[in-house]
């Protein structure tokens, strides 16, 4: 099958980049050089401040490498209620402004972690109360309206391990409680499998809510260890829970075929979590992954 509606890209995450500035990460210039060399045409901005935040410089750096930006990313804790709105919007507005300036049309929204992804420290209860669910859903709808009205961007909410939007049950609850006209998902195949979900079934059931894809696979053996030990996400990644395709689950061809069948244009951004990783590790993996996806028709 030729996946004519799927636009393939990659992200700083696949180069071990989780933070704006970290001594264990490669310089942003090297990331841009290597992602272009790997055969990708699209990238995400990654953590705000990693790539240049001056729009003119960022455009110049991406254009000369024949790269385009698909989305920016923000983290939010909207389940805490209206009192966090102002601080949330300050962060979102900065990222949205830069995202719009690059010509991108999406803003990936990741709910805040209930435990720290580096230290494993428990920050709050892993289950939301009914009131917190209402804050999360109404706050997300408000964010979608504001981002759309002010910046012309579409938000796509990213179910993520160690957040409150993670399992099939919680993702379904979130979707059923939000306006389909406002709120779509960024389906991350690796995170959803990590949390026990079936990506193909989600696409077939909630197809109109799928606005964006992250392509990722989980190593089943490592995942079994992670679940048995209840490891936080960061240490799980360091152990190698996310692996390059086609070595893990879910199988990507059925996911891509289900997405193609939706009949809409979709970004599918490769995001193989690898923090921290040796600086020379990502490039060969990125090349092999791009070749593999070409073999899948993408």
From TrEMBL:
<feature type="domain" description="Xylose isomerase-like TIM barrel">
    <location>
        <begin position="32"/>
        <end position="281"/>
    </location>
</feature>
<dbReference type="InterPro" id="IPR013022">
    <property type="entry name" value="Xyl_isomerase-like_TIM-brl"/>
</dbReference>
<protein>
    <submittedName>
        <fullName>2-keto-myo-inositol dehydratase</fullName>
    </submittedName>
</protein>
<dbReference type="InterPro" id="IPR050312">
    <property type="entry name" value="IolE/XylAMocC-like"/>
</dbReference>
<dbReference type="InterPro" id="IPR036237">
    <property type="entry name" value="Xyl_isomerase-like_sf"/>
</dbReference>
<dbReference type="Pfam" id="PF01261">
    <property type="entry name" value="AP_endonuc_2"/>
</dbReference>
